[in-house]
UniProtKB/TrEMBL annotation:
Transmembrane segments: 39-61, 82-100
Organism classification: Bacteria, Bacillati, Actinomycetota, Actinomycetes, Micromonosporales
A Pfam family: AzlD
Keyword tags: Membrane, Transmembrane, Transmembrane helix
Protein name: Branched-chain amino acid transporter
Domain of life: Bacteria
Length: 102
């Protein structure tokens, strides 16, 4: 059953991608929609980051993980190398947990 579900999801994903390529010239979005479409992707990504950084299960995750995400965001904003951003984020969360801050 799991294989069937995976194959259906793969076919659906392929269909969406193929449809986008085939309909590119036929579908014309209105100017306001085309202007706001990149912002929708940013909003969706921000909501995903906020949800995974702040919650686990049905409750608040604590302070350590959001502090690590914030430290990583500041490091990325300062344009540090990606590996350093990851180390700073993980290190911040680990140090806070080691200090007893949940």
């Amino acid at each position: 059953m799991l294989i069937v579900v995976i194959l259906l999801l793969a076919a659906g994903t392929y269909g969406f991608r193929l449809g986008g390529a085939l309909l590119r010239e036929r579908v014309v979005l209105p100017a306001p929609v085309a202007r706001l479409l990149p912002l929708a992707a940013v909003a969706l990504l921000a909501a995903l980051v906020a949800t995974s950084a702040l919650t686990e299960g049905h409750g608040f995750v604590g302070v350590a993980r959001p502090a690590g995400v914030l430290a990583g965001a500041v490091a990325a904003w300062r344009r540090l190398p990606f590996i350093l951003v990851v180390v700073i984020a993980a290190g911040t969360a680990a140090l806070l947990r080691f200090a007893g801050v949940n």
